[in-house]
Amino acid sequence: MIQIESLSVLYGSLAALKGINLNVAPGECVLITGPSGCGKTALARAIGGLIPHAIPAKVEGKVTVDGLDVAVTPLPHLAQRVGFVFQNPSTQLFHLSVAEEVAFGPRNLGLLECEIASRVEDTLKTLDLDYLKDRRPAELSGGQQQRVAIAAALAMHPQVLILDEPAASLDVAGTHAIVNALRELRKLGMTLVIIEHRLAEMLPLADRLIIMADGRIEADAPPQALTSDRNLLRSLGLRRPAEAISTPWDELLIPNGHPRSERPLLQLQNIRAGYGRSKPILKDINLDFYPGEFIALVGENGAGKSTLGLVIAGLLKPSQGQVRFDSRRPQPGLDVGLLFQNPTDQLFTESVDEEVAFGPRNFRRYHPERHQEILNIADLTALRTRPPFALSSGQQQRTAMSAVAALNPHLLILDEPTLGQDWGHLERLMDFLSKLNQRGTAILLITHDYKLVHHYARRVIMLHDGQVQLDGHLRSQGENDKHEIYYS
Predict the structure, then answer these.
(1) pLDDT by residue for the chain (488 residues), tens digit each?
(2) Where are the domains of the chain?
(3) Distance (Å, rounded) from C-alpha 344 to C-alpha 340?
(4) For 54, phi and psi rounded to 5 degrees?
(5) Which among 220, 219, 222, 179 is positioned nearest to 202, based on CA atoms?
(6) What residues pair up with 255 in beta bridges, in sequence order?
(7) Are 445 and 296 in contact, with CB atoms under 8 Å apart?
(8) What secondary structure does DSSP assign to 56-112, as a single string?
(9) CATH of domain 249-487
(10) Which of 84, 147, 169, 370 has minimal CB crowding within 10 Å?
């Protein structure tokens, strides 16, 4: 189905891929992983024809999909055979309803309306998205958008489906829906190429695991043969997959109301907030945050986590209630810094170096030693002259985080920082946050990642349907041994 011969891809003078040779049989499922910036997304784009048709690059070698030479086959023809779900799903969603989004591809194939309606209904049902069919994609959470983008690709009935980090922003239920749908597609003979850092959920689907590094394929073997090689995983900074999580957050948390005697750093009082004229997403939120806390904000996709982050950061005005920072309104950037779920929304300068220095220079707080320290910790020193939009998603995430942290805010919010990050870089990022936390910076981590929550958070707040359902801490292994596997 897919044949790749001596494929090299260069962006200017930068080699993204170096002599890749790969064959994928019809109906096979290939799982690709590797450190951030190793070339995984470039390989996926080359298979789907986005390179070179939509993304300028110098290409050497040959890519063939279902007998078609990708280099000379127009994208509209390739799109009928190859479905592609981007790392950032919002870039491929543009309709006014989920149903219309899913119908767009089949409609462009000139199918009868009855066939289009059938495909939309079947696809939404398969991915458990019926309840969102009339919603605007732009108003959905990142995880919900991810599933809508997958639905839109599946509705085209492609022979090959490429998914770039499909589980990065999904809650447990959403991940299960995706995995179950992909399992059914495998039974129908669809060829799957999945790029993922979070391997546990996708490994049961895979025939082969491919590990990439520095634009090359380092290993290609059955999954068990590679995941059991701890030295290989450790050398590449990859995360050892534990058993996939299936336990809801409310069964892992012990509520305690988090009583504190000192003065709060930030207070949310009777907060209601949403977007436009739609019904409120947040409803009557009352929370206190204290200096030096390390908090995880968890909950299902669409619970209101990102909306709450925007309210706290002063970027979304609540329709009701007050946000008070040390008894006054917070100053965005200085009092509260926010790393967006999509890092490209906050990158705008000509180089990584300028990006990280922009805030401190703007507020006259630039210190060369601290600037260099942040670049080193985020593993960005070698990339400091690169344009941010020429980076991988993981590198963009680290650049945006460094730019936010450079202002040394009192409260730092990170919305799904695992996107595009291998475990080695993520550990360095989290260790840096831990150092900031030890110096007094409060951290609010918005995540679905059980391992991060267990290792770093001392307080966990769970949102459900726009309200605080639980406020407490994770059960320790001694309190409930059955959850030990989740923290490995």
Answers:
(1) 999 999 999 988 889 999 999 999 999 999 999 888 889 999 999 999 999 999 889 999 999 999 999 999 998 888 889 999 887 788 888 899 999 999 999 998 899 999 999 999 999 998 889 999 999 998 888 778 888 999 999 999 999 999 998 877 777 777 888 888 888 888 888 999 999 887 878 888 999 999 999 999 999 999 888 887 778 777 776 766 655 555 778 888 888 766 676 889 999 999 999 887 778 899 999 999 999 999 999 998 889 999 999 999 999 999 999 999 877 888 888 999 999 888 888 999 999 999 999 999 999 999 999 999 899 888 899 999 999 988 877 788 889 989 999 999 999 999 988 776 777 777 777 888 888 888 889 999 998 888 888 888 999 999 999 999 999 888 765 544 444 433 33
(2) 2-235, 249-487
(3) 8
(4) -110, -25
(5) 179
(6) 472
(7) yes
(8) --EEEEEEEETTEETTTS-HHHHTTTEEEE-SSGGGG--SSSHHHHHHHHHHHTT--
(9) 3.40.50.300
(10) 370
Structure tokens at 123: 């696809």
The Cα–Cα gap between 37 and 215 comes to: 8
Closest listed residue to residue 84, CA positions, set 143, 10, 137, 159 = 159
The predicted model scores a pTM of 0.74
Place of tokens 């945006």: 400
The sheet carrying 208-213 orders its strands as: 82-85, 160-164, 191-195, 29-33, 208-213, 216-221
Tokens of 208: 């082969």
Q: How far apart are CA 432 and CA 169, in angstroms?
A: 22
**Residue 251 CB contacts under 8 Å (≥ 6 apart), including other chains:** none
For 14, list phi and psi in degrees, rounded to 5: -90, 125
Identify whether the C-beta of residue 271 lies closer than 8 Å to the C-beta of residue 321: yes
417/398 Cα distance (integer angstroms): 8
CATH architecture observed for domain 2-235: 3-Layer(aba) Sandwich (3.40)
Exposed / middle / buried, residue 479 (Cβ in 10 Å: 0-12, 13-18, 19+): exposed
Structure tokens belonging to residue 331? 């100053």
